[in-house]
Amino acid sequence: MNKVKATTLAVQHLLAMYAGAILVPLIIGGALGFDSKQMTYLVAIDIMMCGIATLVQVYSGKFIGIGLPVVLGCTFTAVSPIIAIGTNPEQGITDIYGSIIASGFIVMIIAGFFGKLVKFFPPVVTGSVVSIIGISLLPVALNNMAGGQGAPDFASGSNVALAFITLVIILVVYRFSTGFVRAISILIGLVAGTVLGMFMGKVDFTPVDEAGLLHMVQPFYFGMPTFDLTAIVTMTLVAMVSLVESTGVYFALSDICEKKLDSKDLARGYRSEGLASVIGGIFNAFPYTTFSQNVGLTRMSGVKDRKIIYITGGLLVALGFLPKLAALTTIIPTSVLGAAMLAMFGMVITQGMGMLVPVMNESAENAMIAAIAVGLGVGVSVVPGIFDSLPPEVAILTSNGIVCGSVTAIILNILFNMIGPKHKKDPMHG
Q1: What kind and span of H or E run contains 159?
Q2: Where is the signal peptide (predicted)?
């Protein structure tokens, strides 16, 4: 593959994860009352650290790196706990970063033990988790297609039309082209949708004008970290929740790349995420996890080469130093981005289904495990307040649909397939 093709595919991966990556610092910075200068730093450093975290994970070494074409970004699971710590009168922003650094070290220490839990993630569990991830993300895609939640023109005819025109462009390119052009169908759709959005008055170049030319990073920008025990416990729980999410993504990618994962591979992957959080905390970014939208993109494009993700990681690091370039990628209209997300998240769902079908045909028990796990996981995503009455220690496992579904799948798999007498194959399925 030549350099131009590889770089184009890498840019497509960057654009796929960019909105999700910058959303976390924008939400947290807004909630903590940051000014525009602090917000600019937060977004730029976040993008750079996404690149570093990705490079650490794609690398396959003795102690770190899962060696799969995986892209890392800020975990949404951490948003609420970080805001809670930052707005607590007895805690503050330095406690946020102290807890992120400490939780990262804890993850690195327990990675080996966590990696031995691979037997608890057979295809019926990982297929359920991957399906839940895709389905749970659909509301994000549809809200974006409508213009973004809270937008004054939410669900306007122009937003919906722009989203569906973008989707049609992606589908037409995907259907009537082959090879490289087909692999970058998402990118072509994003560019074409943005150009159309300019004619519709939906592209605002103000962020590009206001951004500086060069941006230098500095450790502990918001002050030296402080270590509050409650904050550390909270962020460690969040980190473990992210590991469960990441495990599903690892297995989805291993399925696409036809690379079998063992406990040592998982331990290296977890260790990389812990290291990424430590580095992120030092430079005042956030905890990192694998991004599901890039799994959908890998499946759609059919390109599994890690070199592409190395370039993506390098571009993300470069963007962190170049605020004007970083701002340029923020001008893509939300509805255009939503259309691309719909295609990618849909591919994540079909990936999960593909993992589930063979094992559901093996036994009725597996079909029941998947039914309840996916049903609960998606249900919690649709009705997030259903378990609000539970104590906070339990709520961390039930407030997030992906985690709730994952835990359910693991428990049911133990119950049906790992303890007690082994059932014979269902006679209906041979």
Answers
A1: helix 157-176
A2: none
- What are the phi and psi torsion angles at 33 (to 5°)? 75, 35
Q: Which two tokens stand for residue 179?
A: 């090879």
What is the enclosing helix (H) or strand (E) of 405? helix 401-413
Q: Could you give the angle at which helices 292-301 and 185-199 cross, rounded to 10 degrees?
A: 110
Q: Strand, helix or coil at 103?
A: helix
Strands (E), 311-389: none
- Tokens 């959303």, residue located: 23
Phi, psi of 290 (to 5 degrees): -70, 145
Six-digit token string for 158: 């122009």
Cα–Cα dist 230/236, whole Å: 10
Q: How confident is the prediction for the chain on average, in pLDDT?
A: 84
Token pair of 251 as six digits = 């297995």
Q: Which DSSP symbol is given to 74?
A: E
**How many Å apart are CA 40 and CA 137, to the nearest integer?**
27
* 430 has a pLDDT exceeding 50: no
Q: Among all chains, which residue has been given the structure tokens 């049609």?
A: 168
Across-strand partners of 290? 72
Q: Per the structure block, which two tokens stand in for 88?
A: 């607590």
CA separation for the pair 408, 418 (Å, rounded)? 14
Angle, alpha carbons 343-11-130 (nearest 5°): 40
Using alpha carbons, list the distances in angstroms from residue 151 to 27, 187, 335. 15, 24, 11
The per-type count for the chain, helices as H runs and strands as E runs, is 18, 2
Neighbouring residues of 266: CB distance < 8 A, sequence distance ≥ 6: 66, 114, 115, 117, 118, 247, 250
**Rounded CA separation 296/169 (Å):** 18
* Distances in whole angstroms, Cα of residue 55 to Cα of each of 64, 73, 215, 256, 297: 11, 12, 21, 20, 18
Separation of alpha carbons 210 and 218, rounded Å: 21
**What is the model's pTM?**
0.72
Greatest mean pLDDT range, 22-26, 112-116, 422-426: 112-116
Q: 3-state DSSP call for residue 73?
A: strand
**pLDDT tops 60 at residue 205:** yes
Tens of pLDDT, residues 135-148: 887 888 898 899 98
d(CA 359, CA 362): 5
Residue appearing with tokens 């759609």: 300
Return the residue matching tokens 């659909």: 138
Task: Decide: 53 and 309 in contact? Cβ < 8 Å.
Answer: no
Identity at 37, one-letter amino acid code: K
